[in-house]
Write a structure and sequence with these properties.
290 residues; mainly alpha; MetI-like fold; two-stranded antiparallel sheet; 12 helices; globular; disordered C terminus
Length: 290
């Protein structure tokens, strides 16, 4: 009897601890998302506010060439920056996991230090680097690689560099957390069976750290679709992302339903990415078990 009563109290205590989480999720996650989707099917009022009339015009408007090109440009930038982040962050995180404890702490500290300052301040630092006669121009001309200042600021490459700089720590930490749990005895076993160092890495190490890489891809791709302030600061008005259009529709156009429709489509795209990630990681883990 005492055992049943104590287990019942524990169950009641666990439920009591879960209630605040559920309440928070409903109030600050589920309801705002539901409100956004409902708002996307309404009309903008003539003067201010929303007209409660059902319509699909907001989604039809997204199919216009102007907004389709904006989505395509956002996807292109997201794929480009995510690819570069993966190419740079995976080796960094993987080899950092192979270091001794002292160097691991040092490398982690180098990754975390930039987070001690505002992201906007760090992005404005890139303006000093990319502007004409800036730090980069002086270095290149000092090395006699260029004869005149380059116009890098407010260009697409500058935005890509800003995206990579902002998202790289997430990839490194995701890969590092996965590579640190790697069982090196499996790698040694593959080498003992005759596999080369490259084949052992590709067939064992890479596959076991693939979930960390895919986590970093998700953590990099999804934010890159909405980091419009990076494009505004380093790209000027030349690089327009979906996030920039949403902000403009809310602040200047005062068209909240259309902004909600854009946000809904963006959320669907990111949800597809998360679904693909879960499917791939689930499949890879199942293959590893087999």
């Amino acid at each position: 009897m005492k055992t049943k009563k104590s287990s019942g109290r524990r169950d009641a205590g666990n439920i009591g601890l879960l209630i605040p989480m559920y309440v928070f999720t409903v109030l600050f996650v589920a309801l705002p998302i539901l409100y956004m989707f409902l708002l996307s099917f309404l009309q903008r009022a003539q003067v201010w506010g929303v007209d409660f009339t059902f319509t699909l015009d907001n989604y039809k408007r997204i199919l216009e060439p102007l907004y389709l090109n904006t989505f395509l440009q956002s996807l292109k930038l997201a794929f480009t920056s995510t690819l570069l982040v993966a190419l740079i962050g995976y080796p960094y995180g993987y080899f950092m996991a192979q270091m001794n404890a002292v160097w691991k702490r040092r490398m982690l500290l180098l990754i975390m230090i930039p987070f001690w300052t505002s992201g906007l301040i760090r992005l404005y630092g890139w303006i000093i680097v990319f502007r004409s006669n800036g730090v980069l121009d002086k270095i290149l001309m000092g090395l006699h690689l260029t004869d005149q200042p380059l116009k890098l600021l407010y260009t697409y490459p500058a935005v890509v560099v800003g995206m990579v700089y902002a998202l790289l720590p997430f990839m490194i930490l995701a890969v590092y957390s996965s590579a640190e749990k790697l069982d090196h005895s499996l790698v040694e076993a593959s080498r003992d069976l005759g596999a080369s160092s490259w084949k052992a890495f590709w067939t064992v190490s890479f596959r076991l750290t693939l979930p960390g890489l895919l986590s970093g891809v998700v953590l990099s791709f999804i934010p890159s679709m909405g980091l419009f302030f990076i494009a505004d600061i380093l790209g000027g008005n030349k690089i327009v992302l979906v996030g920039s259009v949403i902000q403009e529709q809310i602040t200047k156009g005062r068209n909240q339903p259309f902004a909600a429709a854009l946000s809904a489509v963006l959320m669907v795209l990111t949800s597809v990415m998360i679904r693909l990630y879960r499917k791939i990681t689930g499949t890879s883990q199942l293959e590893g078990m087999l």
